[in-house]
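Suppose a colleague, Dr. K., hands you the sequence of a protein chain of 164 amino acids and asks what its three-dimensional shape might be. Before reaching for any lab equipment, you can write down a predicted structure in token form. Begin with the sequence itself:
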Amino acid sequence: MDVSAGDQLAIVGRLALAALLGAIIGLERELRGNPAGIRTMALVTLGACLFTEISVLTGAQDRIAAQIVTGIGFIGAGVIFRGGTGMRGITTAATVWGAAAIGMALGRELYVASILGTVLIVVLLYSRPLTRRVEELVSPLDKKLRRDLVEAGIADEKEVRTDD
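The predicted structure, expressed as tokens, is then:
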């Protein structure tokens, strides 16, 4: 496999862009005090991009892409914590997964998709106040529906918690 200096410089440029886009994604996580911040997301996007670049050069795109997804799933699982009745880290795990996808897209030279994907990820991460407001509006309806199901005998009280 002989790769010209020009092609290698193009790969390095994509790696730098991957690190930058990952850092942009990680900034939101960093500002919220989450463990997977700027460096983590930059490393995930850069690593996924480099693995994708190598897979293109070696002709093993499918196998390596599948292994990237598996490896990122393993990392994502490591940031999810279950405590009591709740879980923490799911959004961070999903963000790691999305960052890897951005890196893979860059490795396939999908610049527009990578940049717009990054923008969408950041917008979704910053939509937290909106999703909390929707939850506040829907929660009373959900509780009423749960009570109605129990009262109608459709559901057992153990199946439908109404004390939330």
